[in-house]
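User: Hi! I'm working on a homework problem where we have to compare a predicted structure to a textbook description. Could you give me the structure for the chain below?
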Amino acid sequence: MTLNRIKDSFSRWPIKKALQISLAIFLERFGVKAYESLLLEERLYKWLVQLGYSVTKLKNHILVHDKDLNRTKVLLRRETSDVRVFIQIFVENEFGGLLELIKDKSRIKTIVDAGANIGISSIKFNCVFSNALITAVEPDAGNFSLLKQNLAANNVNSKVVQSGLWNRKTKLYFDHSFRDGKEWSISVTEKPNAGPYIESISINDLIESNQLELIDILKIDIEGSEKQVFLGTNNLSFLDRTRYLAVELHPEIVDKEAIANILANKGFELSTSGEYLIGENKNFKLY
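Assistant: Happy to help. Predicted C-alpha coordinates:
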Protein backbone atom coordinates (compact mmCIF):
# COMPACT_ATOMS: atom_id res chain seq x y z
CA MET A 1 0.00 0.00 0.00
CA THR A 2 1.63 3.24 -1.13
CA LEU A 3 1.61 6.55 0.68
CA ASN A 4 -0.10 8.20 -2.29
CA ARG A 5 -3.05 5.80 -2.14
CA ILE A 6 -3.52 6.57 1.55
CA LYS A 7 -3.24 10.29 0.87
CA ASP A 8 -5.87 10.01 -1.88
CA SER A 9 -8.34 8.41 0.50
CA PHE A 10 -7.88 11.14 3.10
CA SER A 11 -8.51 13.80 0.44
CA ARG A 12 -12.03 12.44 -0.05
CA TRP A 13 -13.13 10.89 3.22
CA PRO A 14 -13.40 11.73 6.92
CA ILE A 15 -10.50 10.31 8.93
CA LYS A 16 -12.38 7.27 10.25
CA LYS A 17 -13.64 6.23 6.81
CA ALA A 18 -10.24 6.86 5.20
CA LEU A 19 -8.60 4.61 7.79
CA GLN A 20 -11.17 1.89 7.09
CA ILE A 21 -10.48 2.13 3.36
CA SER A 22 -6.73 1.97 3.98
CA LEU A 23 -7.22 -1.11 6.15
CA ALA A 24 -9.43 -2.72 3.50
CA ILE A 25 -6.75 -2.15 0.84
CA PHE A 26 -4.12 -3.68 3.13
CA LEU A 27 -6.20 -6.74 4.05
CA GLU A 28 -7.15 -7.32 0.43
CA ARG A 29 -3.51 -8.19 -0.28
CA PHE A 30 -3.98 -11.23 1.97
CA GLY A 31 -7.33 -12.25 0.53
CA VAL A 32 -9.34 -10.76 3.39
CA LYS A 33 -12.41 -8.67 2.53
CA ALA A 34 -13.42 -5.72 4.69
CA TYR A 35 -15.44 -2.52 4.23
CA GLU A 36 -16.30 -3.65 0.71
CA SER A 37 -18.88 -0.96 -0.08
CA LEU A 38 -16.50 1.80 1.05
CA LEU A 39 -13.66 0.34 -0.99
CA LEU A 40 -15.84 0.03 -4.10
CA GLU A 41 -16.98 3.64 -3.80
CA GLU A 42 -13.40 4.87 -3.34
CA ARG A 43 -12.38 2.97 -6.46
CA LEU A 44 -15.18 4.64 -8.42
CA TYR A 45 -13.83 8.03 -7.31
CA LYS A 46 -10.32 7.01 -8.37
CA TRP A 47 -11.66 5.93 -11.75
CA LEU A 48 -13.22 9.36 -12.21
CA VAL A 49 -9.85 10.93 -11.41
CA GLN A 50 -8.21 8.74 -14.06
CA LEU A 51 -10.83 9.98 -16.53
CA GLY A 52 -9.83 13.58 -15.86
CA TYR A 53 -12.24 14.65 -13.14
CA SER A 54 -11.24 16.37 -9.94
CA VAL A 55 -12.75 14.49 -6.98
CA THR A 56 -12.26 16.15 -3.61
CA LYS A 57 -13.83 16.53 -0.19
CA LEU A 58 -16.01 19.60 0.36
CA LYS A 59 -17.37 19.73 3.90
CA ASN A 60 -19.87 16.85 4.13
CA HIS A 61 -19.90 16.10 0.40
CA ILE A 62 -17.74 14.94 -2.47
CA LEU A 63 -17.19 17.58 -5.17
CA VAL A 64 -16.74 16.24 -8.69
CA HIS A 65 -15.47 18.88 -11.07
CA ASP A 66 -14.91 18.49 -14.80
CA LYS A 67 -11.50 20.13 -15.30
CA ASP A 68 -11.67 20.08 -19.10
CA LEU A 69 -15.07 21.73 -19.52
CA ASN A 70 -14.59 23.92 -16.45
CA ARG A 71 -18.35 24.16 -16.11
CA THR A 72 -19.57 20.99 -14.44
CA LYS A 73 -19.32 20.71 -10.68
CA VAL A 74 -21.50 18.26 -8.83
CA LEU A 75 -21.90 17.65 -5.11
CA LEU A 76 -22.33 13.98 -4.20
CA ARG A 77 -23.13 12.32 -0.89
CA ARG A 78 -20.77 9.63 0.32
CA GLU A 79 -22.11 6.10 0.85
CA THR A 80 -25.11 6.70 -1.39
CA SER A 81 -26.02 5.90 -4.99
CA ASP A 82 -24.95 9.40 -6.11
CA VAL A 83 -21.61 8.48 -7.67
CA ARG A 84 -23.24 5.70 -9.70
CA VAL A 85 -25.82 8.13 -11.07
CA PHE A 86 -23.02 10.52 -12.04
CA ILE A 87 -21.16 7.74 -13.85
CA GLN A 88 -24.28 6.62 -15.71
CA ILE A 89 -25.02 10.09 -17.01
CA PHE A 90 -21.61 11.69 -17.56
CA VAL A 91 -19.26 8.75 -18.12
CA GLU A 92 -21.51 6.14 -19.72
CA ASN A 93 -23.45 8.88 -21.54
CA GLU A 94 -26.83 7.32 -20.79
CA PHE A 95 -28.68 10.02 -22.72
CA GLY A 96 -26.41 9.75 -25.76
CA GLY A 97 -29.11 8.27 -27.98
CA LEU A 98 -31.51 11.07 -27.11
CA LEU A 99 -28.95 13.81 -27.66
CA GLU A 100 -27.97 12.43 -31.06
CA LEU A 101 -31.58 12.71 -32.24
CA ILE A 102 -31.69 16.45 -31.66
CA LYS A 103 -29.65 18.14 -34.36
CA ASP A 104 -30.23 21.81 -33.51
CA LYS A 105 -29.51 21.97 -29.79
CA SER A 106 -30.16 25.72 -29.60
CA ARG A 107 -33.87 25.31 -30.33
CA ILE A 108 -34.60 23.25 -27.22
CA LYS A 109 -36.34 25.68 -24.85
CA THR A 110 -38.36 23.61 -22.37
CA ILE A 111 -37.24 20.49 -20.48
CA VAL A 112 -39.09 18.64 -17.73
CA ASP A 113 -36.84 16.41 -15.60
CA ALA A 114 -39.22 14.19 -13.61
CA GLY A 115 -37.38 12.17 -11.01
CA ALA A 116 -34.53 14.66 -10.98
CA ASN A 117 -32.78 13.06 -7.99
CA ILE A 118 -29.87 15.38 -7.07
CA GLY A 119 -29.83 17.20 -10.40
CA ILE A 120 -27.21 15.32 -12.40
CA SER A 121 -29.44 14.77 -15.44
CA SER A 122 -30.55 18.42 -15.32
CA ILE A 123 -26.91 19.52 -15.26
CA LYS A 124 -26.16 17.27 -18.24
CA PHE A 125 -29.08 18.75 -20.16
CA ASN A 126 -27.93 22.25 -19.27
CA CYS A 127 -24.47 21.52 -20.69
CA VAL A 128 -26.01 20.53 -24.02
CA PHE A 129 -29.11 22.75 -24.19
CA SER A 130 -27.91 26.02 -22.72
CA ASN A 131 -31.01 27.93 -23.88
CA ALA A 132 -33.50 25.70 -22.08
CA LEU A 133 -35.54 26.26 -18.94
CA ILE A 134 -35.48 23.04 -16.94
CA THR A 135 -38.31 22.15 -14.58
CA ALA A 136 -36.89 19.59 -12.13
CA VAL A 137 -39.37 17.47 -10.16
CA GLU A 138 -38.20 15.40 -7.18
CA PRO A 139 -40.21 14.12 -4.19
CA ASP A 140 -37.55 13.07 -1.66
CA ALA A 141 -36.46 15.82 0.75
CA GLY A 142 -32.80 14.77 0.91
CA ASN A 143 -32.47 14.49 -2.84
CA PHE A 144 -34.38 17.75 -3.31
CA SER A 145 -32.09 19.70 -0.99
CA LEU A 146 -28.98 18.65 -2.92
CA LEU A 147 -30.80 19.12 -6.23
CA LYS A 148 -31.25 22.81 -5.43
CA GLN A 149 -27.59 23.19 -4.44
CA ASN A 150 -26.31 21.48 -7.58
CA LEU A 151 -28.50 23.46 -9.96
CA ALA A 152 -27.49 26.74 -8.30
CA ALA A 153 -23.78 25.84 -8.38
CA ASN A 154 -23.98 25.22 -12.13
CA ASN A 155 -26.15 28.27 -12.90
CA VAL A 156 -28.85 26.08 -14.41
CA ASN A 157 -31.85 28.05 -15.63
CA SER A 158 -34.37 26.03 -13.67
CA LYS A 159 -37.50 25.74 -11.63
CA VAL A 160 -37.61 23.09 -8.90
CA VAL A 161 -40.76 21.32 -7.74
CA GLN A 162 -40.81 19.06 -4.69
CA SER A 163 -43.56 16.65 -5.61
CA GLY A 164 -44.20 13.13 -6.83
CA LEU A 165 -45.27 12.62 -10.43
CA TRP A 166 -48.66 10.88 -10.67
CA ASN A 167 -51.79 10.96 -12.80
CA ARG A 168 -53.89 13.11 -10.44
CA LYS A 169 -53.73 15.08 -7.22
CA THR A 170 -53.30 12.82 -4.19
CA LYS A 171 -51.10 12.19 -1.15
CA LEU A 172 -48.05 10.03 -1.82
CA TYR A 173 -46.03 8.16 0.80
CA PHE A 174 -42.39 7.15 0.46
CA ASP A 175 -41.40 3.53 -0.08
CA HIS A 176 -37.77 2.46 0.42
CA SER A 177 -38.35 -1.20 -0.41
CA PHE A 178 -37.95 -0.87 -4.19
CA ARG A 179 -34.78 -2.43 -5.61
CA ASP A 180 -31.79 -1.59 -3.36
CA GLY A 181 -33.67 1.06 -1.39
CA LYS A 182 -30.96 3.64 -1.96
CA GLU A 183 -31.41 7.26 -2.97
CA TRP A 184 -31.77 6.50 -6.68
CA SER A 185 -34.62 4.02 -6.11
CA ILE A 186 -36.93 5.81 -3.68
CA SER A 187 -40.48 5.23 -4.86
CA VAL A 188 -43.86 6.61 -3.82
CA THR A 189 -47.23 5.00 -3.18
CA GLU A 190 -50.76 6.02 -2.33
CA LYS A 191 -50.80 3.41 0.44
CA PRO A 192 -50.41 5.28 3.76
CA ASN A 193 -47.54 4.46 6.09
CA ALA A 194 -46.06 5.97 9.25
CA GLY A 195 -43.66 8.19 7.32
CA PRO A 196 -44.14 11.62 5.78
CA TYR A 197 -46.22 12.20 2.68
CA ILE A 198 -46.01 14.60 -0.22
CA GLU A 199 -48.54 16.03 -2.66
CA SER A 200 -48.51 14.65 -6.18
CA ILE A 201 -48.48 16.50 -9.46
CA SER A 202 -49.36 15.39 -12.99
CA ILE A 203 -47.59 16.38 -16.19
CA ASN A 204 -50.76 18.12 -17.33
CA ASP A 205 -50.71 20.10 -14.06
CA LEU A 206 -47.11 21.13 -14.79
CA ILE A 207 -48.08 22.26 -18.27
CA GLU A 208 -51.01 24.30 -16.95
CA SER A 209 -49.27 25.87 -13.95
CA ASN A 210 -46.23 26.86 -16.02
CA GLN A 211 -48.26 27.86 -19.09
CA LEU A 212 -46.23 25.57 -21.34
CA GLU A 213 -47.23 25.40 -24.98
CA LEU A 214 -45.05 22.35 -25.40
CA ILE A 215 -42.34 20.27 -23.76
CA ASP A 216 -39.26 19.90 -25.93
CA ILE A 217 -37.79 17.12 -23.77
CA LEU A 218 -39.67 15.11 -21.15
CA LYS A 219 -37.39 12.90 -19.08
CA ILE A 220 -39.07 10.48 -16.65
CA ASP A 221 -37.30 8.23 -14.13
CA ILE A 222 -39.76 7.79 -11.28
CA GLU A 223 -39.15 4.27 -9.96
CA GLY A 224 -42.32 2.58 -11.14
CA SER A 225 -44.72 5.52 -10.95
CA GLU A 226 -44.67 5.60 -14.74
CA LYS A 227 -47.38 2.94 -14.44
CA GLN A 228 -49.71 5.58 -13.00
CA VAL A 229 -48.60 8.29 -15.44
CA PHE A 230 -49.14 6.24 -18.60
CA LEU A 231 -51.51 3.40 -17.68
CA GLY A 232 -53.52 4.83 -14.78
CA THR A 233 -55.36 7.52 -16.73
CA ASN A 234 -57.06 8.18 -20.03
CA ASN A 235 -55.75 11.75 -20.12
CA LEU A 236 -52.47 11.53 -21.99
CA SER A 237 -52.85 14.90 -23.67
CA PHE A 238 -49.38 15.90 -22.44
CA LEU A 239 -47.93 13.56 -25.05
CA ASP A 240 -49.47 15.69 -27.79
CA ARG A 241 -47.32 18.58 -26.53
CA THR A 242 -44.11 16.56 -26.11
CA ARG A 243 -41.45 16.54 -28.84
CA TYR A 244 -38.90 14.16 -27.33
CA LEU A 245 -39.32 11.74 -24.46
CA ALA A 246 -36.90 9.66 -22.40
CA VAL A 247 -38.52 7.31 -19.88
CA GLU A 248 -36.91 4.62 -17.76
CA LEU A 249 -39.34 1.72 -17.48
CA HIS A 250 -39.20 -0.60 -14.46
CA PRO A 251 -40.36 -4.07 -15.54
CA GLU A 252 -40.98 -5.24 -11.96
CA ILE A 253 -43.92 -2.84 -11.88
CA VAL A 254 -44.95 -1.83 -15.38
CA ASP A 255 -45.70 -3.56 -18.68
CA LYS A 256 -43.04 -2.06 -20.94
CA GLU A 257 -44.78 -3.21 -24.10
CA ALA A 258 -48.04 -1.55 -23.05
CA ILE A 259 -46.33 1.81 -22.62
CA ALA A 260 -44.39 1.41 -25.85
CA ASN A 261 -47.67 0.75 -27.68
CA ILE A 262 -49.25 3.88 -26.18
CA LEU A 263 -46.31 5.99 -27.31
CA ALA A 264 -46.29 4.46 -30.79
CA ASN A 265 -50.01 5.15 -31.15
CA LYS A 266 -49.35 8.77 -30.16
CA GLY A 267 -46.90 9.12 -33.03
CA PHE A 268 -43.60 8.47 -31.26
CA GLU A 269 -40.80 6.68 -33.08
CA LEU A 270 -39.05 4.61 -30.41
CA SER A 271 -35.47 3.60 -29.69
CA THR A 272 -33.38 2.87 -26.60
CA SER A 273 -30.47 4.62 -24.91
CA GLY A 274 -28.97 3.00 -21.82
CA GLU A 275 -31.90 2.10 -19.57
CA TYR A 276 -34.19 4.63 -21.26
CA LEU A 277 -36.89 4.24 -23.87
CA ILE A 278 -36.50 7.20 -26.23
CA GLY A 279 -39.39 8.66 -28.17
CA GLU A 280 -39.39 11.16 -31.04
CA ASN A 281 -42.84 12.60 -31.78
CA LYS A 282 -43.28 12.45 -35.55
CA ASN A 283 -46.45 14.54 -35.35
CA PHE A 284 -44.17 17.56 -34.90
CA LYS A 285 -41.87 19.08 -37.45
CA LEU A 286 -38.81 18.15 -35.45
CA TYR A 287 -35.44 19.80 -35.47
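For your comparison, note the following. The chain has two domains: 3-80, 93-281. The mean pLDDT is 90. Good luck with the assignment!
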